[in-house]
Specification:
heterodimer; A: about 375 residues; alpha/beta; abc type-2 transporter like fold; 14 helices; 5 strands; about 10% strand; B: about 240 residues; Rossmann fold; six-stranded mixed sheet; 10 strands; about 35% helix; about 25% strand; globular
């Protein structure tokens, strides 16, 4: 045990003395979250929209004023006819068009129900659905102000049309994806590289000659990366809650425990990679091709699993990040409890155990 | 009792016989030089004795313990300095010493006194807290040797310890080896510097995986009527069929 602690200390020295890598590892999650986060939010603020007001009456004017006042919208064009809609979208100048039918106020006041058409550019489904939601909110706000004014209940229906991608496939939540990516990177890649480095520089030989169990050295390596990963998880969660306003709906303790489970599985994968790699480059290549690419492509983070062809869908089952991703979505975004993620938890635990067992069995205590 | 006793030790890699049926003994407190050209099988033989590599056949005892059955006991009794540099460059001198002391299970007070002794002996007092990376190669090798000796092993294995080191430092390094031997440690050293062979109590010369000659430097020179070990080494090594690897 004392020997083990000596090793843990040594690993902390390695980690901290390599300042560049250390700060990169701490910085990656922050940078990724900010990039993903602001790529999304910037688009929604001051989005360029067009208005086609065929009614030109007091009610439509009042709603347009609200759009103008909103910080989410920036009215770029006032269109005169339906024919101008298509070119406006094609030119890329607008992301959303608000269309008032010619008899808007008449229907609103006499028919007690009127319709506004919202046309979104769904080539980017996330932005477009966000914009439509915001636009709907602006209209509903106007509607409720009418109601507060004591007039008879009036209803404005919004009719949405999503151009280019009506099903809105591909909307994703990037926070869990970034988490899976970062943890995979820090745990699997860094652990495997640092074990293989010892083989490369020759210190592994000396360790193997010494009475210490080589596996205790390997486990000592995992501890600093485990802690670093927990720090990364916390920084991702803090950023997503306080900077991106993505709240944690579910149980925080459960969420962190699930993250730790995934960290352990990734560490075990790193150990497995180190046992089959002969150089740091090989270990890095294995981690990138064998772990990072599937984590990005097959976890459901970039592309929804249900849309994949059957062989890839099948393959995604062996990607740990897939199970982790859906666990985090369930716990963090949907706020579900353990009853909904026990299956994923069980699969991840099984994977962690399996990788650990195989790599321990494969770990060579002698040179060739 | 012999310090190292080897009978018919053989190591095959597929059809390649790296070490071919070697037999020798090393006495306690002896400096035993293990000579041979590159690829002759020195390192493989040494690795088997250290437990880094499993022999294909043959018997051996190291420090009185059986190579196959008592590998853990052997590990506690030997020190090893690898051909590659075996200290951590991003740790300070003191941290390296402490780590290896810890690996060999020394108590914390022992490690403290050992560290101070060692740093003083190497005259590295003012550098004890600098990273090993900043030390010149010769100093690093001397430090690596001291670290390999930290647990006072009965036998120390040195695999080409003076490779790439300047002549003055090599001289100092050998002084350290003599001191270790005089304290009773058996030194098993591979080298291809023939002048260093003259410092050994006994040498063996490996050619193509087998031991071609063995004895004190004086005996060997007489037997092969050469003026120096270098001369007789060339005589023997020319017979080698195996190419350099």
């Amino acid at each position: 045990m004392k020997q083990f602690l000596f090793f843990v200390k040594k690993e902390f020295y390695h980690l901290i003395r390599d300042r560049q890598t250390f700060f990169i590892l701490l910085g990656i999650p922050v940078v990724l979250i900010l990039i993903f986060g602001f790529a999304l939010t910037n688009e929604v603020k001051n989005s360029r929209i067009a208005v086609l007001d065929l009614a030109k009456d007091a009610s439509s004017r009042a709603i347009i004023d609200r759009f103008e006042a909103s910080r989410y919208f920036d009215i770029q064009q006032y269109l005169q006819s339906n024919d101008e809609l298509e070119p406006a979208f094609k030119s890329g100048k607008i992301r959303l068009a608000v269309v008032f039918p010619s008899n808007f106020e008449h229907e609103l006041l006499h028919g007690q129900s009127a319709t506004i058409q919202l046309i979104g550019d769904a080539s980017d489904p996330n932005v477009s659905s966000t914009l439509i939601n915001y636009a709907t909110a602006v209209i509903m706000d106007y509607q409720s102000s009418l109601r507060d004014a004591g007039e008879i209940p009036l209803r404005i229906n919004t009719e949405m049309r999503m151009l280019y991608n009506p099903q809105l496939k591909g909307s994703y939540n990037f926070v869990p994806g970034v988490m899976a990516l970062v943890l995979m990177l820090v745990c699997a890649m860094m652990t495997s590289i640092s074990i293989v480095r010892e083989k490369e520089i020759g210190t592994m030989e000396v360790i193997l000659v010494s009475p210490i169990r080589p596996l205790s050295m390997v486990f000592a390596k995992m501890i600093p990366y485990f802690l670093l990963s927990v720090v990364n998880v916390i920084s991702i969660l803090l950023l997503s809650v306080f900077v991106l306003d993505v709240p944690i709906q579910g149980n925080l303790v459960l969420l962190i425990l699930e993250c730790m489970l995934f960290i352990i599985a990734s560490l075990a994968l790193g150990l497995l990679i180190s046992s089959v790699s002969t150089s740091q480059q090989v270990a890095m290549l294995f981690s990138l091709m064998g772990l990072m690419v599937p984590t990005i492509m097959l976890s459901g983070f970039m592309f929804p699993i249900e849309n994949m062809p059957a062989p890839l869908r099948f393959l995604s089952n062996v990607v740990p990040a897939r199970w982790f991703y859906s666990t985090v979505i369930s716990v963090m975004i949907k706020g579900l409890d353990f009853n909904y993620v026990w299956k994923e938890t069980l699969i991840l635990s099984g994977m962690a155990f399996f990788f650990m067992a195989v790599s321990i069995k494969n770990f060579k205590t002698r040179l060739e | 009792m012999k310090s190292i006793s080897v009978q018919h030790l053989t190591k095959r890699f597929g059809s390649f016989v790296a070490v071919d049926n070697i037999t020798f003994d090393v006495n306690p407190g002896e400096i035993f030089g293990f000579l041979g050209a590159n690829g002759a099988g020195k390192t493989t033989a040494m690795r088997m004795l250290c437990g880094l590599s499993m022999p294909s056949s043959g018997e051996a005892t190291v420090a009185g313990f059986d190579l196959y059955k008592e590998a853990e006991k052997i590990k506690r009794s030997i020190g090893y300095m690898s051909q590659k540099f075996s200290l951590y460059e991003d740790l300070t001198i003191r941290e390296n010493i402490r780590l290896y002391g810890g690996i060999y299970g020394l108590s914390i007070p022992t490690i403290k006194t050992k560290t101070d002794q060692l740093v003083t002996a190497l005259k590295l007092e003012d550098k004890a807290n600098t990273l090993v990376r900043s030390l010149p190669l010769g100093w690093r090798q001397k430090l690596a040797f001291s670290v390999a000796m930290i647990h006072d092993p009965k036998i120390v294995f040195l695999d080409e310890p003076t490779g790439g080191v300047d002549p003055i430092t090599r001289r100092e390094f050998w002084t350290m080896i003599f001191e270790a031997a005089s304290r009773g440690t058996t030194v098993f050293v591979t080298t291809h510097y023939m002048d260093e062979a003259e410092y050994c109590n006994r040498v063996s010369i490996m050619v193509d995986g087998g031991i071609e000659a063995m004895g004190t430097p004086e005996e060997l020179k007489k037997k092969y009527t050469s003026n120096s070990i270098a001369e007789m080494f060339l005589q023997l090594a020319r017979k080698a069929k195996r190419s350099d690897d």
